[in-house]
Amino acid sequence: MPKLRSHEWFGKHDRDGFLHRGWLKNQGWPGDLFDGRPVIGICNTWSELNPCNAHFRELADCVKRGVWEAGGFPLEFPVMSLGESQMRPTAMLFRNLASMDVEETIRANPMDGVVLLMGCDKTTPSLLMGAASCNLPTIGLSGGPMLNGKFKGKELGSGTGVLKMTDEVNAGTMPLCEFFEAESAMNRSKGHCMTMGTASTMASMVEALGMSLPGNAAIPAVDARRNTLAQMTGRRIVGMVREDLLMSNILTRAAFENAIFNNAAIGGSTNAVIHLLALSKRIGVPLALDDWDRLGSSLPCLVDLQPSGQHLMEDFFYAGGVPVVLRELGEAGVLHREAITANGHSMWENVANAECSNREVIRTFAQPFKAHAGIAVVRGNIAPNGAVIKPSAASDHLLRHRGRAVVFESVEELHARVPDDSLDIDENCVMVLKNCGPRGYPGMAEVGNMPLPPKVLRRGIRDMVRISDARMSGTAYGTVVLHISPEAAAGGPLALVKSGDMIELDVPARKISLEVEDRVLEQRRAQWTPPSTPRRGWEKLYVDHVLQAHEGADLDFLVGSSGAAVPRESH
Ligand code: FES
User: Which one, out of 50, 134, 488, 535, has a CA that is 20 to 30 A from the CA of 35?
Assistant: First the structure.
């Protein structure tokens, strides 16, 4: 076994050893626990303000059972919990802050290995990023999705169902009382969103990266097998410490490519792009925005799950989950089979025998659910550093479209003007939203899938081309161009668009163009003034240092790793 970090705290025969061991003993730990066994930190994002992770105390107890069984010493610690449904202005504003909490807590304390308890959207990337900057033996455990939502005899998916019902309310085809009745029918068990939204996508990314035990993503939160997986995860992290299997041994370029392949095959969220770009820079693996298009956009989507399809995560679990998808990819030659995973086996050893129990939910590579999936990266004079679109969630007839821009300078202006029937807009227009990027919002909120005007909805239209520097919920859908970089608030060309300009989107050609002469754009730039910036606190630090979307929106000074060398003594 390698020399353990925790020995530098607990193995000392002096005053410092007294301090480190003695104060912990106030919890009743017997002295023989400080005998050199691996100390496992359980990084818990439990919070009652984060309903998706509210069951994590029970999960942590199951992890501890496994750690004890394998001869380790588990110590649970809290970190900032980012709840997507409650935090304003957006949980994404705090992803990098939470990652700092994770990184510094790990490095400062006597840990030899770490279990990351992750669930709601941003809790997964923030924990992975923070842990990657320490690079100890680390394993992920997701909290699992809620049971399928059910309402009036139909499946009701998190987020996706809300967006669809909102359109129906705005179109006058669903009464408001019915809309509110659906709240409890959708969220009927513990767990995170049960569509293939960002939480399910990121849990699937954890599995495809090899950072968890097989089967991590899809087991429902309430299924007893989630607790079993937690216990097995606790057992395994002790083994990883003994083998000195570091995060950087798992998070290789091959692992990131496997994640990109998998994201296409599951119809995963556009948010995975930003989070994996940021993670790759923490662990030192070269990965670029264009890799997502080059590696993933020609792949088929195999999984028929909302928002791209009709089923939900519970169905995905019963059908076999991520291992079946990875097996399909592996048999089609689109998987780095040799990539090492957290259980010490290769990816292929883990998934080669995965069986599918429902081909309606997980299709074969030869007869996929959708022929082209993944993320397309479009560029042009309005997005010189790129923008993304998820074709599997878009309308085919809008992937090539030219239309008149209707511009909203802020999300407040959008919400004030869109319901007004006097707004000069029809379904052929292109809706443009500015100032919602990393600096502009700040935090790059999930507002890119703008609500359609009621007068358009009443004509039966359910999709329009929408473009912005914002993100979009992984549960959302539509022909929505996102993550335009540079963003408007940073002076990107998006800031210069005016209502009435013509915009052409050509996804097959990977182009997005603003049909305005350069000379006119320069005149507009001379008159542009940057928006005001925060005066103090976290928002100021964030806005002063956040990178643009195509670089992962991390803070510039957090890129990279500082390792987990033992800091100097505290007394
Ligand atoms: Fe937490 Fe969707 S709100 S996963």
Answer: 134
